Amino acid sequence: MSRLIQRYQDAAHFLGKADGALSLTARLLFAAILMVYFWASGLTKLGDGILGLFSPSLGAYAQIFPRAMEAAGYDASQLGFYHWAVVTAGTWAEFILPALIAVGLATRLAALGMIGFIIVQSLTDIIGHGLSAEPEAIGAWFDRAPDSLILDQRALWIFVLLVLVLKGAGPLSLDRLAARRLASA
């Protein structure tokens, strides 16, 4: 029995050294599952042409500020600078933060930013888009349904990002390359 316990402890010790693999896997899973989701969402918010980066689409305002847009008769020109700044920053975040995570640059900060983004996105869905009236969409933890849009899915998204906040980008990242360059300088 003691040999079995010792083998278990040896295996646990070996796996405890796998932080780099955990970080790399978290980044790869984020890129494979969520990066394209966020980029596709960001594309729906861009205005026309190259200046669309600075002139969000009407849909962008409706997605991020649904109640304000309804009150303004879906006329974005009725909204102020604050609304434009939030919509523009949110749109850019959907492109920049996932890209930073994918290449492993400023990973902890980018992952923390994505966690904040997902929390705001979830609150906008629940409050702004009225999902609070649809409990099955919000879901409940410790139930038999693992696929609610808000609590279940987004908790897993945040967990993957939390791994990156706590463990960093891992060995195959621009963060690690930058750290090596700074150490040798």
From TrEMBL:
InterPro entries named in the record: DoxX
Bilayer-spanning residue ranges: 21-40, 81-102, 109-131, 155-174
Membrane topology: Multi-pass membrane protein
Chief location category: membrane
Domain of life: Bacteria
Subcellular localization(s) per the UniProt record: Membrane
Keywords: Membrane, Transmembrane, Transmembrane helix
Official protein name in the record: DoxX family protein
